[in-house]
Design goal:
The chain has two domains: 188 residues, Rossmann fold (3-Layer(aba) Sandwich), CATH 3.40.50.300; 65 residues, Alpha-Beta Plaits (2-Layer Sandwich), CATH 3.30.70. Helices cover 38% and strands 25% of the residues. The protein contains 15 helices and 14 strands. The strands form three sheets. Strands 6-7-8-3-9-10 form a six-stranded mixed beta sheet, sandwiched between helices. The longest helix has 16 residues. It binds adenosine-5'-triphosphate. It holds the Pfam family ABC_tran.
Length: 359
Amino acid sequence: MSGPVTREDGAHEVFADLPPSPAVWCSGLHKRYKRRTAVDGVSFTVERGEVLGLLGPNGAGKTSVIKMLLGLVRADAGEVLLLGRRAADPNARARVGYLPELFRYQPWLSAAEVLALHVRLAGATVPEQERRDCLALVGLADRAGDRVGGFSKGMQQRLGLAVALVARPELVILDEPTSALDPLGRADVRDLLLSLKARGVAVLLNSHLIGEVERVCDRVVILDKGRVAASGTLPELLGQRELRLRLDAVGPEAEARLAAAGRLTRSGEGYAVALPAELDDAVVPDLVADLVRLGVRVHAVEPGRISLEERLLDILRTGPGAGGIRSEERSDEAGLRRLPGGLSERSERSQLSPGEEQR
Ligand SMILES: Nc1ncnc2c1ncn2[C@@H]1O[C@H](COP(=O)(O)OP(=O)(O)OP(=O)(O)O)[C@@H](O)[C@H]1O
């Protein structure tokens, strides 16, 4: 016969049923350096296994936000939870990998020694073979014994990535991880990020390389002047796709078929059909097949969508208003108002439902 369920056992069962807490949850972060406001009410979440891109112009506050998440800069206001724990909790910190924007490793150590040192600092145990594999993952397998002082900038950045990854983190925060890398190195990092994501590791990526962000990120938060100017998934941020067609012999029936696929605009032989953001793979081939069947001569079919770079420039120049992009300022305020002082970690989480705060 099983014994009586203690309060602790009961609590354990209740919490075991809860979905995992977000990898990052922050609400209402503020930071001033003397009279300059660097971060002005920033809130967002990074879910487990998600790659979140942090974008914004120079001085927007991206690095300040990252440093506040990690406790490297003290926030003037706001709350941070990492992996469901207070950011200062050593148990949370040990499970976070971080590549700073600017860093220098001890030039007299070898790459292997730098990794061993950081494993010790994280309080982790990582066998030597796994540390070697980590160096191989960033393309430094044959430089393990070389002193870091002789490394190129790109090689130091690769080592920085290995340091961020070596202690098997559940959350990786990368501040400009590819700024010194050649195109091949950037492609390697993209693959690396996708493999982390496939393993359920959450990634917060700060990068000015927008094409990179567009390729790997599930969601993007755009900062401007210390505030969240916009955030969302790529389809949310980029809006509708467009299909541009060059056609002739288009009869009324074919025109009706085009209009059925999406809002239709025409100039001469050129037709543009606005398609929904989330598109079934069969929509375009089916449309072309139907047009051909209706006697239309199809000269060209081109997919078109505004790029993230165009959208970012648009937001920074004109504000987030156009295109149905959410500004999170309102939820920041809500987050702050709803944060009662002195609550326990768990009760804060359950009151705030961090995952839902942004939805
Ligand atoms: N230690 C500091 N002392 C004083 N001001 C600072 C400090 N760190 C950052 N700032 C200021 O805070 C603002 C935000 O800087 P931050 O480095 O967070 O921006 P960023 O978005 O990461 O910029 P970049 O893309 O250029 O790296 C800037 O105006 C910067 O001058």
